[in-house]
Design a protein that fits this description.
Length: about 375
């Protein structure tokens, strides 16, 4: 019989997939911001036309005016992006509290309490670091980098005597696919291409950082029933060596290794950019809870939880999960929801790679949909 940790691992991996879908929805929002920015920069360049046939001193004046306008436009766009992502992350933090209460559902008793109020969650989100810096700082860096790249390309084009249309091509503007009758830009080859890829990395990592930080703080608040945490990696051909090496490792809540684990607790994930590893709680066994819970609470647990659940609360760690093997255990309806109808058919017929299997780009999930699925009833 699987222990309670295996059951919780199953629940939290499903939630981790939905977090990936939510991340892609946030990335799509940012693509909208950057698409509008691309149009604004194109219009500014054409309007000021620094490469026009005027005398040199007028061209220099026009260039200064253009770069000033562009920097202001870029800063505003990334400020708006930062605020938008911040709001989404704060809402996500509240959802995370509700999702973490899956523990109570698995046990069949209100074993853990969620003591994270909105003010505490806001401070937690604002203070969450990605590679040593808050996410707001990463958006500021993106803004500065784009403004500098734009200036460099325009100056280079002018130095080579290129006309405005040639400078636009240098920046990546070409007639491409038409979407709703509007001109579209080749982001992949232009100056905005790397920014969209960087934005995806920042969003994916930010979402994961907030999720794991809220979860870990919640575990700490329930140290009377949770004795530690276990790392689980979604094992597939995209899993990094660092996550493979840590998957299955367990630590006490004060960071000491448990069982065969040798490494001290490295802190909650993400452990690298786009990390997908997750922490699940290690519940105390029924015997251990006898020395931690009040007699009344222990009696309530034994009364509410089934005998099967009580016997599965043995304090043991969960087994590692292989994503594809895990997905095969789910009903068809769930598989279709995760993969989408077309990918499901390809996967069922053995024509889908692992990379395609775990890619959630085409299955976005908005914050409202996430709230509906995991919010408090």
């Amino acid at each position: 019989m699987a222990n309670i940790s295996d059951k919780l691992a199953d629940e939290f991996v499903e939630y981790a997939i939905d977090l990936q879908r939510f991340s892609e929805s946030a990335v799509n929002d940012i693509r909208g911001f950057l698409t509008q920015l691309a149009q604004d920069l194109e219009e500014a360049l054409k309007k000021i036309d620094p490469a026009g046939p005027e005398m040199e001193r007028y061209r220099a004046k026009r260039l200064t005016e253009l770069l000033k306008t562009v920097k202001k436009t870029i800063n505003k766009t990334y400020t708006d992006i930062g605020r938008h992502v911040g709001r989404e992350l704060r809402e996500l933090a509240e959802i995370e509290v509700s999702a973490a209460e899956k523990i109570n559902v698995a046990v069949g008793y209100d074993l853990i309490k969620a003591g994270l109020n909105k003010n505490r969650l806001k401070r937690l989100v604002d203070g969450t670091l990605i590679d040593g810096a808050p996410s707001s700082e990463w958006w500021s860096r993106q803004s500065d980098s784009l403004a500098q790249r734009f200036a460099d390309e325009v100056r280079m084009g002018m130095a080579l005597g290129e006309a405005t249309e040639q400078i636009l091509e240098r920046l990546g503007y070409k007639d491409g696919k038409r979407i709703k009758g509007q001109r579209w830009h080749y982001f992949e080859k232009g100056i905005l291409g790397p920014r969209i890829r960087d934005a995806r990395s920042v969003v994916l990592t930010s979402v994961h950082a907030v999720s794991q930080k809220v979860r870990h703080d919640m575990y700490q608040d329930n140290a009377d029933v949770i004795k530690g945490v276990q790392a689980l990696a979604t094992l597939d051909n995209r899993t990094t060596q660092i996550c493979m090496s840590r998957s299955g490792n367990a630590w006490t809540l004060d960071g000491k290794p448990l069982g065969k684990t040798k490494e001290d607790f490295p802190g909650p994930p993400p452990w690298h950019w786009r990390c997908r590893s997750t922490l699940i709680p290690l519940l105390c066994s029924i015997r251990e809870l006898g020395g931690r819970l009040s007699p009344r609470k222990l009696a309530g647990l034994k009364k509410s939880a089934s005998k099967r659940t009580q016997s599965s609360m043995d304090g043991q760690v969960a087994a590692d999960l292989n994503y594809e093997q895990w997905l095969k255990t789910k009903p068809k309806e769930f598989q279709v929801e995760v993969l989408g109808p077309k990918k499901y058919e390809l996967w069922k017929n053995g024509k889908l790679t692992f990379r395609d299997l775990v890619d959630q780009k085409g299955r976005p999930l908005t914050v409202k949909e996430l709230q509906k699925k995991y919010g408090r009833k």
